Amino acid sequence: MRVRFWRSWRIAAATHEQKHQNLLAQRAPMLARQIELAELMATRRADIENYEARLVAQAAEDDAARNAIEQQRQECTRREAEIWKLVAERASQLETINSDEANLRAVRDRLSELQEKRGTHSVRQTQLQLQIEHLAEHVMERYRIDLRLFEPDTQAHEKFCMRSSSARCAPNL
């Protein structure tokens, strides 16, 4: 009985040992799979942290882009105001230029008129000078007096005008 007991005990121990070995054999792939899953979870956590960091960076980049867009919008508004100011200034300057051109045109027309009058007067002056020269030559031929050498006697003229009561002797020298 003892031997049987020992045999059954040995059989039980061997069975238990074999079950333990089978359990360890079954556990090894599960442990490998557990390690593999732990590594995969660590990789996924790192990816999640990386994506979260990207989201934070992208949010900061979005804010920076919104700020830049707002600044550009403000700059655009400011530039448009400057453009309208310059357009108004240009219109004012064009008005001034047109007014000045009209004045210049009027002055040039007046200058042309005066040049025409000057030409007319110059022709008249030449005609009168020729008449004077003709009269001087006529007087010289007829009376033998050179009128170019004649000097008026203002005192004698004044005395004559005082004596004469006629209005045509007024002092028009």
Tell me what you see in this structure.
With 173 residues, the chain is mainly α. The protein has one domain (2-147). 88% of the residues lie in helices and 0% in strands. The chain contains 2 helices and no strands. The protein has helices at residues 2-143, 154-163. The longest helix has 142 residues, at 2-143. The protein is rod-shaped. It starts with a helix and ends in a 10-residue tail after the last helix. The model has no long low-confidence stretch (mean pLDDT 88).
Spell out the blueprint of helices and strands.
Blueprint: H1 2-143, H2 154-163
Unreliably modeled segments: none
If you compute it from the alpha carbons, what radius of gyration comes out, rounded to the nearest whole angstrom? 64 Å
Mean pLDDT: 88
Helix- and strand-based class?
mainly alpha
How many beta-strand segments?
0
- The residue fraction in helices comes out at over 70%
Compute the number of structural domains: 1
Oligomer: single chain
Number of H- or I-type helical stretches: 2
Order of helices and strands: HH
User: Termini, distance in Å?
Assistant: 185 Å
List keywords for this structure.
173 residues, mainly alpha
Q: What is this entry, summarized?
A:
The protein is an all-alpha fold.
